[in-house]
Specification:
The chain is mainly α. The protein has seven helices and no strands. The longest helix is centred in the last third of the chain and has 42 residues. The C terminus is likely disordered.
Length: about 200
Amino acid sequence: MLRPLKQYLVDEGIPRWRNILVTPETFLSVAVVGIFLVYGDRLFDKSPKIGDLTTGLIAYASIALGFCVAGLTISLTLPDRDFASHLATLKRSGEKTNSYSDLLFVFSWTAIAHWATILVLFVVILLTESTSPLLPVGHTRCRTAIVAAVAGLCTYCLCQFLITLITLSQVGSVYIKHLAERHPDTGDQSGSTDDQ
């Protein structure tokens, strides 16, 4: 498992490191971590309960993971060969990767982020009392750091899923333009007949 993951990060992650680290979703996630570290003790000392929160987040992350895997599979089997070729040759200026590999990366990266989140949340469930508040009175500083890190990871996943949806919309727009270029409008084919 570690070798394919390392290969994935080398082949796909490193060429896109700026698009992963220097993004609004990453900055928002870091901000959430900061908020939890500074204000978490006052905001989450009574609620929510860990069991309720982790169960809901695992359900969301599982659905998002399934969505991303399905999207990745569909992207790999695009029925329109011309459109797949178009995406594979389409590059943004200054970028080394093409639009098709970027599309596959968005799905795979979002899926991996959600997989990691599910794994972390299961560990949280196993190691904590489910009826305990998120940051109960008298908790350790280590617990605050762990909760902050998990909150940042969940925030990143939520933002990344939104990016995935926006990417799908953008691909749809490109596909519509591609179809319009292949089949230019020949005018209104419905026609109208004069009343006689």
